[in-house]
């Protein structure tokens, strides 16, 4: 390397044009380039005048990767966009309309952030329920607008959507008037309310549709994030899944364009295996869902548990049990679901990704 390569340069890479080398006249720069093979033009950049270097540095596959100079786009958090997608899809399912998260590219009204805060509260206070009466269920809590749960975005959305369907009558059966008449979740719930209003009240309708968005968006997003992460992290899994989808489209099993129905998706065994495995290694619910042992007590694996004791099975622990899922239970391997039909059914009985019977 030329002796000048070790000469300190005052300029930074961002102020390259003001470096000493670039302050020289063009003829002088040409002479220097002709006489020197390599010249340091910035603290961490060397300009090389060599045919061999050109062939090596600029050829593909030589592991001389492009610098930040070539970065045309910023990286994005795919998990965040999958969360937006989950919200918009559930909006279509529940209310026949998208919430607009994808279109706006942001957490509208802080709905996701509100759910995150509420889930953190539920996870902690849920272990000591009596504390809830001192906090969220305390009448004084409602005096603070930001604390009142009625002001939460999902609550307001659910209430406003119910108002849009009123009056509830058998003519509309809960469907939006002057619309395409789609049978969405809210319409189905209102229809059930009209049949037995004394047993299935408006409050019940609200509770279910609110829960579908509140809990459904989080668990759906979590499952999609797990699926994308594990599939994209394994070239072999990704290649096999893409091949299955492409072949299914060519065979007419899947539509080339448009949405894919649940029934059509069932025709993709490897995709279903990938989905089950994503829910197994990263179940959406990580909390213990507790139950109370009956008065007579219960016995589990030789352990006697007295009546009245709270017990729970944690999905994250159960899904990694090697007695159930094999010695590679810690690994993401969709093929485990395709080896034997009876074995797959046996493993299915121990899938608690969102608990069971909650």
TrEMBL record:
Domain of life: Eukaryota
Cofactor: heme
Molecular function per GO: heme binding; iron ion binding; monooxygenase activity; oxidoreductase activity, acting on paired donors, with incorporation or reduction of molecular oxygen
InterPro entries, per database record: Cyt_P450 (IPR001128), Cyt_P450_sf (IPR036396), Cytochrome_P450_monoxygenase (IPR050121)
Signal peptide: none
Keyword set, alphabetical order: Heme, Iron, Metal-binding, Monooxygenase, Oxidoreductase
Family: Belongs to the cytochrome P450 family.
Protein name (Swiss-Prot/TrEMBL): Cytochrome P450 monooxygenase AFLA_114810
């Amino acid at each position: 390397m030329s002796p000048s390569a070790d000469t300190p340069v005052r300029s930074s890479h961002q102020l390259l044009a003001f470096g000493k080398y670039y302050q020289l006249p063009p003829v002088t720069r040409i002479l220097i380039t002709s006489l020197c093979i390599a010249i340091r033009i910035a603290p961490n950049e060397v300009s090389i005048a060599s045919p061999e270097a050109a062939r090596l540095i600029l050829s593909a596959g030589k592991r001389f990767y492009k610098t930040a100079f070539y970065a045309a786009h910023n990286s994005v958090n795919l998990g965040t966009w999958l969360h937006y997608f989950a919200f918009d899809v559930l909006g279509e399912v529940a209310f026949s309309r998208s919430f607009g998260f994808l279109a706006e590219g942001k957490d509208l009204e802080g709905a996701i952030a509100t759910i995150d805060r509420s889930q953190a509260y539920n996870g902690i206070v849920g272990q000591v329920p009596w504390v809830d009466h001192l906090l969220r269920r305390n009448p004084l809590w409602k005096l603070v607008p930001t604390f009142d749960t009625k002001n939460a975005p999902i609550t307001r959305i659910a209430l406003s959507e119910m108002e849009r369907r009123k009056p509830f009558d058998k003519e509309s059966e809960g469907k939006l008037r002057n619309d395409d008449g789609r049978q969405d979740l809210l319409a189905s719930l209102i229809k059930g309310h009209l049949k037995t209003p004394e047993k299935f009240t408006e409050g019940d309708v609200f509770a279910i549709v609110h829960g579908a968005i509140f809990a459904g968006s989080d668990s759906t997003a979590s499952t999609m994030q797990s699926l994308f992460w594990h599939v994209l992290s394994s070239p072999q899994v990704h290649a096999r899944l893409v091949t299955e989808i492409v072949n299914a489209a060519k065979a007419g099993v899947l539509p080339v364009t448009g949405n894919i129905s649940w029934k059509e998706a069932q025709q993709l065994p490897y995709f279903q295996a990938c989905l089950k495995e994503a829910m197994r290694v990263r179940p959406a619910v990580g909390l213990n869902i507790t139950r109370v042992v009956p008065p007579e007590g219960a016995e589990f694996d030789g352990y006697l548990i007295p009546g009245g004791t709270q017990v729970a099975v944690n999905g994250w622990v159960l899904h990694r049990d090697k007695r159930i899922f094999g010695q590679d239970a810690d690994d993401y391997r969709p093929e485990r679901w395709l080896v034997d039909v009876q074995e797959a059914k046996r493993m299915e009985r121990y899938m608690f990704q969102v608990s069971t019977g909650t």
